[in-house]
């Protein structure tokens, strides 16, 4: 077998899996402009964090993603993943001075890295279909039980109060928004030949248009969530980032998000997870 095809077909190591997660978090942070979210030049709807906060956070998490991939490869139970995730949250909070930058990504990307580790232990590459199947097979029951537990987080409590699908519920269903909306949107944008920033922006808006983002619900209630979802649908219906006035329209939506104090943190995490899937491809 030629070296190139052999390298292309090898299962990734825990180091490669974890490194891709750290790079994917940077892919998301680097996207600019982004509606209501932190970018290298803008705090969006946040007074308590900026790009430096996120950089300190993602550096603090680089060992976590490798470790949780190793746990997945070792067939660890959910409780071990949970303890690893909680320890990572503590390191995130220590690095950010107590600011919650990546709690959602610690959860979503952590579970994806664990699934990729479990697949690699079988010599398999982490395709979207195999990742979703592995997540359900290895930890689906525990995730379903977790989703029934009342949330202690502002977003999760808002999601529960408003009858929305929280991050835990999304995980228990095998991250449908990631695998059925974000990954296809990014793949389609690449096939259209869009440059990376436009491909990522269209993917982010595709996620905002369908996700029960508990950050939006916590900050703006159902009205705020539905406003954001409708704005995202209209943006994509008008041609998205590649439309003649795409970037101006995106900036105008961002201005209105900031006026309403809206921040789609869950959509940002889902974009990062889609970037990770692409890097693992
Ligand atoms: C695992 C948990 C985190 C799940 O708890 P819960 O189900 O209650 O989750 P949510 O509150 O619904 O969401 C938690 C974070 O996940 C992101 N998110 C939001 N909606 C969704 C969604 N529908 N699907 C997927 N992910 C979603 C979001 O995280 C991002 O936003 C945060 C930053 O934005 P900001 O507005 O600043 O957020 P806050 O600080 O909360 O608001 P302000 O005070 O500033 O106004 C940041 O976290 C981003 O990542 C949601 O915030 C929980 O059970 C848990 O912590 N478990 C322990 C760890 C564990 O079990 N790990 C398992 C193995 S890895
Ligand atoms: N860039 C960002 N801005 C605000 N919240 C986020 N959560 C994840 N990424 C984020």
Automatic annotation (TrEMBL):
List GO BP terms, alphabetically. Answer: prosthetic group biosynthetic process
Q: Name one GO molecular function term.
A: glycosyltransferase activity
The enzyme's first-digit EC class, named in words, is: transferase
Task: List the catalysed reactions.
Answer: 3'-dephospho-CoA + ATP = 2'-(5''-triphospho-alpha-D-ribosyl)-3'-dephospho-CoA + adenine
Q: What is its EC number?
A: 2.4.2.52
| Tagged with keyword Transferase | yes
Source organism's superkingdom?
Bacteria
Alphabetically list the UniProt keywords. Answer: ATP-binding, Glycosyltransferase, Nucleotide-binding, Transferase
Family, similarity comment: Belongs to the CitG/MdcB family.
Known role: Involved in the formation of 2-(5''-phosphoribosyl)-3'-dephosphocoenzyme-A, the prosthetic group of the acyl-carrier protein of the malonate decarboxylase.
What is the official name of this protein in its record?
Answer: Probable 2-(5''-triphosphoribosyl)-3'-dephosphocoenzyme-A synthase
Per the UniProt record, the source organism is: Piscinibacter terrae
Q: Which gene encodes it?
A: mdcB
């Amino acid at each position: 077998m030629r070296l190139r095809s052999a390298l292309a077909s090898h299962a990734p190591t825990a180091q490669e899996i974890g490194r891709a997660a750290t790079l994917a978090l940077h892919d998301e942070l680097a996207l600019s402009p982004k509606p209501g979210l932190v970018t290298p030049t803008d705090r969006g709807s946040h007074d308590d964090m900026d790009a430096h906060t996120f950089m300190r956070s993602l550096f603090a998490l680089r060992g976590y993603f490798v470790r949780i991939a190793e746990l997945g490869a070792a067939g660890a139970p959910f409780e071990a993943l949970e303890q690893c995730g909680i320890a990572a949250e503590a390191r995130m909070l220590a690095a950010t001075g107590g600011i919650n930058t990546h709690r959602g990504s610690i959860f979503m990307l952590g579970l994806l890295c664990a699934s990729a580790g479990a697949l690699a232990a079988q010599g398999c590459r982490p395709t979207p279909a195999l990742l979703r199947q592995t997540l359900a097979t290895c930890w689906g029951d525990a995730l379903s039980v977790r989703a029934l537990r009342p949330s202690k987080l502002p977003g999760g409590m808002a999601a529960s109060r408003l009858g929305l699908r929280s991050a835990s519920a999304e995980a228990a269903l095998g991250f449908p928004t990631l695998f059925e909306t974000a990954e296809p949107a990014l793949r389609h944008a690449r096939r259209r030949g869009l440059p990376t920033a436009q491909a990522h922006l269209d993917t982010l808006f595709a996620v905002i248009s369908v996700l029960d983002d508990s950050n939006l619900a916590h900050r703006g209630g159902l009205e705020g969530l539905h406003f954001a979802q409708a704005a995202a649908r209209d943006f994509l219906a008008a041609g998205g980032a590649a439309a003649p006035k795409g970037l101006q329209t995106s900036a105008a939506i961002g201005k209105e998000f900031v006026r309403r104090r809206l921040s789609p943190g869950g959509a940002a995490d889902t974009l990062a997870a889609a970037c990770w899937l692409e890097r693992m491809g």
